[in-house]
Write a structure and sequence with these properties.
single chain, 23% strand, 28% helix, 3-stranded parallel β-sheet
Length: 580
């Protein structure tokens, strides 16, 4: 009976279902290359519900190629093209993906990107940057000296195995690599051979950027001499190691050199670098204890020099025609003469020198006619300062506590920053000024500072269009017209002036982020200023998403409530929590 039912009735049911399906089926057009789907009842000349809109079918790779072709020729409607879900992350070219990965600080974060797509999953294998940091490996420390020693040995073993495995699996297929970074906590005899092997492996693979750091408190590690003969290295950063160079240095393509707390760095070694590295553009020397004189005369491409806290340094002489930036930070009570003759194209000069005299500074300034940015920090021996420049755009004077007379004639100065406990300005010509910031010590009354500023800028007559902001940790006042600030309470310790609304927004945003203050008051504000502050504070999101993956959130994540009264805003904050 069952067989009889299947033979008689089942074919009829199937036929009936097929007929009903045909009436609702979407038929394709005659031209298969158009990839246009049309419902039944809509002819090629009818607009129907879809009109002339084309629906693109992405069912296979051939359709995707046709889609790309039509995008180039402009045959696809813009409206329909917006509705197509395209995996733009996977479409990024390989060099762009490698550039994105290079901004990630930890190798584990690089590996995590493999979940984004299949293309990114295989991208780590072709990533030409190797980053190994022993600080990432932290074994749990137990109680007792024996357990702590055992945990440290386990940490060293895990780190050594990780580096060996990574180099054996990833390094061999590549003829060259872009970057090799290695940080080691301490060196012992059993580990020195491993470090030599790891660094030599990178050099053999023609590494371009070498960054090696070893904890200077541990046993001194001697850098292999084959590193100083590599023709592929363009950037080399060394920290805490020992440089012993008996043969000439031959780093013919080196452009960036950074030596921090490197032992046996002296005038002779710097001379070898100068002779064997003619393409150096960026030179940074930090806490090089053995360096007593720095003389550079034969580096034609040198553009930036930084010297920080080299305690025995007594003389700096640099003659580089293309030098644009020079930083010098001295140790306390260190005496060092600076001669930049032959560096007439210098644009940025930063000095932190407790023993810099008036005559030495004026002599240095006279040799830099094209200077655009000048920073003087804690130059406590300066008493009289005269700056005459038509090129200067930015000037910063911070904690130069013995200044008694300052004369500035810089008509093109754009920004000015000053901190101290007096107002030592005798004459100022800064007609192009757009931003100014003053920070005062508690010794000086803010009311006196306002009076001095009014004298400085001619009762603010030259500051038309400027906004004056005075603030402390708890309160901020914003004056639309600086001349209205006849009296300000003494608990305000900072004063800023800016000519743009964007500058006001930046100052307010920084203050809210750093201080979590109590009130902001607007005095005689314009409609634009009121709208700016109101939009920033009141039109924020209730659950902001601006700092999703950052541990340190911005002020919007901590602001609980805002109380407004006319043009005054009062703030109520939540407690700061890192895992908010």
């Amino acid at each position: 009976m069952a067989m009889f039912w299947k033979r008689i009735y089942l074919p009829k049911l199937v036929k009936k279902r097929d007929n009903s399906t045909k009436r609702s089926r979407i038929r394709r057009g005659n031209d298969r290359n158009n990839l246009v789907l049309k419902p039944i009842g809509v002819d090629s000349g009818e607009e129907g519900l879809l009109g002339k809109r084309k629906i693109v079918h992405l069912s296979n790779e051939s359709d995707k190629s046709v889609l790309k072709k039509k995008r180039r020729t402009g045959e696809i409607n813009v409206v329909s093209d917006k509705n197509i879900n395209v995996d733009r992350i996977s479409e990024l070219p390989e060099p762009i993906i490698h550039l994105i990965l290079s901004f990630l600080r930890c190798t584990k974060d690089v590996v995590r990107t493999s979940i984004l797509s299949k293309k990114w999953k295989s991208m780590f294998e072709s990533y030409l940057t190797f980053d190994f940091d022993e600080r990432w490996f932290k074994a749990p420390l137990g109680k007792g000296k024996h357990n702590r020693i055992k945990a440290r040995e386990l940490q060293k073993r895990d780190f050594r195995n990780y580096v060996d495995k990574s180099l054996s699996t990833r390094l061999d297929p590549f003829p060259c690599i872009d970057k090799f970074r290695l940080y080691v906590n301490c060196t012992v005899d059993t580990k020195t051979a491993n470090i030599d092997r790891w660094i030599s492996s990178a050099v053999d693979k023609h590494v371009k950027e070498l960054d090696f750091q070893v904890n200077p408190k541990g046993k001194q590690y001697i850098l292999p001499e084959n590193v100083l003969r590599s023709r592929s290295i363009t950037s080399m950063k060394l920290l805490g190691c020992l440089l012993i160079c008996t043969d000439p240095i031959k780093l013919s393509n080196l452009r960036q050199l950074s030596l921090k707390d490197v032992r046996l760095v002296n005038e002779e070694l710097i001379k070898k670098f100068e002779e064997g590295c003619p393409l150096i553009e960026d030179l940074r020397l930090v806490f090089c204890r053995g360096l007593s004189r720095l003389t550079i005369t034969s580096l034609p491409k040198l553009r930036r020099v930084e010297v920080h806290e080299c305690p025995k340094l007594t003389c700096i002489r640099i003659a580089a025609q293309n030098l644009e930036s020079f930083w010098y930070h001295a140790k306390t009570h260190q005496h060092c003469s600076i001669d930049l003759k032959g560096s007439e194209n210098l644009k940025n000069l930063t000095l932190k020198d407790w023993n810099l005299t008036d005559a030495a500074f004026q002599d240095c300034l006279s040799k830099c006619p094209l200077l655009e940015k000048l920073v003087l920090h804690e130059c406590t021996s300066l008493e009289k300062l005269t700056i005459l420049s038509g090129k200067l755009r930015s000037l910063t004077l911070t904690q130069c506590l013995k200044l008694v007379e300052v004369n500035i004639d810089a008509p093109n100065l754009y920004s000015f920053q000053y901190s101290g406990h007096t107002m030592p300005f005798s004459s100022v010509n800064v007609s192009g000024l757009c931003e100014a910031k003053f920070s005062f010590d508690p010794v000086m009354k803010m009311s006196d500072c306002i009076v001095d500023c009014q004298k400085l800028f001619g009762s603010f007559d030259r500051l038309q269009g400027f906004k004056l902001i005075v603030y402390c940790k708890q309160n901020m006042k914003i004056y639309e017209q600086p001349r209205e600030s006849y009296f300000v309470r003494n608990h305000f310790c900072k004063l800023e002036m800016t000519s743009s609304l964007a500058g006001v927004g930046k100052i307010v945003d920084n203050w809210l982020r750093e201080c979590h203050g109590s009130t902001i008051s607007l005095l005689s504000p314009s409609s634009e200023l009121t709208k700016l502050i109101h939009t920033m504070i009141m039109d924020r999101e209730e659950s902001p998403k601006c700092c999703g993956f950052y541990a340190n959130k911005c002020w919007r994540h901590y602001l609980e409530d805002v109380i407004t009264s006319n043009t005054t805003y009062g703030f109520k904050w939540r407690s700061r929590q890192r895992n908010h």
